[in-house]
């Protein structure tokens, strides 16, 4: 017998703070991460990484390592499949052959009975290298005669050119033209859980990979491609993900090497990155040098924009090409009056570690440059910077310069919220600080996509829903929960349609054998795409249940009420109630044992702009916005910046779960603050010098201000209940808001991240000597 | 980390004999906060860990007005910070220990372990140097003692002989009535001080009768700045005096230059820190204070 608790009419949780479904298992330590899995006969994998940034591999001697007791296999590049892998350009082999291109590149893999033995074996491997000339920077890379990281590329990974309108005429007619160059630094994704994978070959010879991932299907396709297997011969299962931030899509190599080793050896293999492994192997965000030239008319409307970006791809091309494309053009879509744009973006191979996807995906780089630039322009125009940003903010109903159709746009409202919350009206009037410590306020705004049609001509999402024999609802999706609350959101959408509490919904972990296809959790796509699919699944289930109940009760569907996990006639015989469980069992019996199950899909009305040479078109069903205000205090003697207050406002369409939105917004803002003030990957001759969390200083609780998170609900017409992607946008504005606040406080404009005490002091000294010079006057 | 044998001697002599026997393969463990990280990264790879946990006589804090303070080497930073006698007679030491690193390290890490690890970028050596600490080193051969600045030799290097164990820290009775330990973190997210500075002073009315000023974290071994101490002696602190003393400190110290901070930046910050520490300890009279 199955039993069901009677439910009181469960109100929808949409818009109400809803704790994550998996909070309990995480808090009690019961969540199973990839590193937790142990299997009979399992081997432990470790890799030897290149100590050279660019060198020819002369010889690899593994004899001593192979002779070590407990060592099962010592393999090198020549042992890997000779097919090359990569997102677009296939140029990466599972282990390096013939030459290494960055410090940290995987050269030899050892599988042993335990991790310590594998480490011991690595110490016994002898690799002879012949150093090659280094490509130390993106400038050096593109200089004629430079050494090549990849032959016959000229070190140019990709070049984009976009031109719309009459740019030269627009500049000629502009009331003010401003040009400046900004530089950003790479950021390590900084998830708590370093990459980990366990892989094995099952009895039928199929490869099974359980890993920490944002996308099981993209990973499945990648492993199949790399190993020359049909996709049906590969199964990828998502383990609990301890944070990903773009670093666990398809660029990390931990899972690929582990999958290959398991396939090659026919034994279960576990590969758990140490933090150093992870620092050396992870893709950080590309460093970019962004030159902006922008023209405004007499009304303060941005009418012309020229963007030139040179970005550092590092040693291999992965998603950095997409990242650059985003940096190059996406922020143009924030300006409602802009029709004239010229952009050139170049991505250069260097011997730095490969760069790729990190939260914000090119947006943070662009937002730093753009908002710094706009603040300088507002100053030159004598306009309040918030007013200037609002005046140029796109609005619902606009079609932007690159063809984004904005069904909702709360950017101006975000600026209103943050300027109000920071007390801008009063504080802008206060006398300027003249003492050692000086306060200043800065603002910045940003745009992000919710979904992005760029892979094949499909950006849909599928949710499968089943009603179990005890009346629960089980959802399957191809999209991942990586801690951001995606599964809770799906449960809320479905539960809301069915009138049951979210606790009655189970969302299964993604598994390519069992889940419907999905591109995965990238581009802030899950809420708007899978959320819609979950609503459709809920409605379909509801329809099926009502039809069945109507038949059983002999009451027309229109006269039935569905509430609290039950269905009953509204007007007649209210005593007869059918539970979801009863209906589910009835369905089983009546349909030859087939459970009540629906599959719902949502493919948004968007356009594959990448298919057109000019890349024009509406790529996303919704666009999210954010703005941030920061009040800093700068110590003019030490150059130190303290954030006194910050407010981030996120236009997520509608906050389906305000608890999750606030959490994600605060996390994104913290990551933005870390990038701006604290984090810096330090390289010497392309070698990372601070690959540990003591020397690469991510923000700690003590180094962050109270982050006030606000929500703008712009009600996206395409969104599930009005929602669109939440909080990734909140990663974008922080750096510029801080730079603008520092400038407001002490008059020093920092155009190169990070904003360090040394740079601020240098700026203050430059100002002081300029002031002391004869005839000096303040700008 | 590799498997190790874990030994638990009960006396200093026994522990010393084990260390002598094990040679390079043996490593003492106290709180383990630094050692475990080094073990996991294989920066050290001993075959045996010799735990001090059961060795008697390495704990406790006692104070005597004539002999001063005795601190057992296994005293944790938080125990030091909480100690009533330390708070009463050496408040600068209690305050330093109470703000050291983070709560986990303060609760688990020991003062002796900190000193023996000899990481230059920590706070206790500087503060103890200013307080004229002597360290007691025991072995099966007997005891000897060294000033902390002689005990610390170089990066992660001490004057300990292979069979010696730091058993305790001795401080003479306090001579100063004012004290402050300042630490400079380059950014709020950095955990290790780029520079630290302990300033002690005995006051005679409005003037400084005697000062003690030690700079650490930015030199491999804490550096006492006698020239600044001499300059301050007999002077009332004014803004100008503080500034001049700070210049003396900044000029006297040869700062390290590394990934965490250049020598030039460290010297600039040392100047600011020194001036602020002096002004904090003995706020200049209003007439001497500059209006910035």
TrEMBL record, chain A:
GO terms for molecular function: iron ion binding; oxidoreductase activity. Residues 28-133 form the Aldehyde oxidase/xanthine dehydrogenase a/b hammerhead domain. Gene3D superfamilies: Aldehyde oxidase/xanthine dehydrogenase, a/b hammerhead (3.90.1170.50), Aldehyde oxidase/xanthine dehydrogenase, molybdopterin binding domain (3.30.365.10). It comes from the Bacteria. The lineage of its organism: Bacteria, Pseudomonadati, Pseudomonadota, Alphaproteobacteria, Acetobacterales. Pfam families: Ald_Xan_dh_C, MoCoBD_1, MoCoBD_2. This is Xanthine dehydrogenase family protein molybdopterin-binding subunit.
TrEMBL record, chain B:
GO terms for molecular function: FAD binding; oxidoreductase activity. Residues 1-176 form the FAD-binding PCMH-type domain. Keywords: FAD, Flavoprotein, Oxidoreductase. InterPro entries: CO_DH_flav_C, CO_DH_flav_C_dom_sf, Diverse_Substr_Oxidored, FAD-bd_PCMH, FAD-bd_PCMH-like_sf, FAD-bd_PCMH_sub1, FAD-bd_PCMH_sub2, Mopterin_DH_FAD-bd. SMART domains: CO_deh_flav_C (SM01092). This is Xanthine dehydrogenase family protein subunit M. It comes from Muricoccus nepalensis.
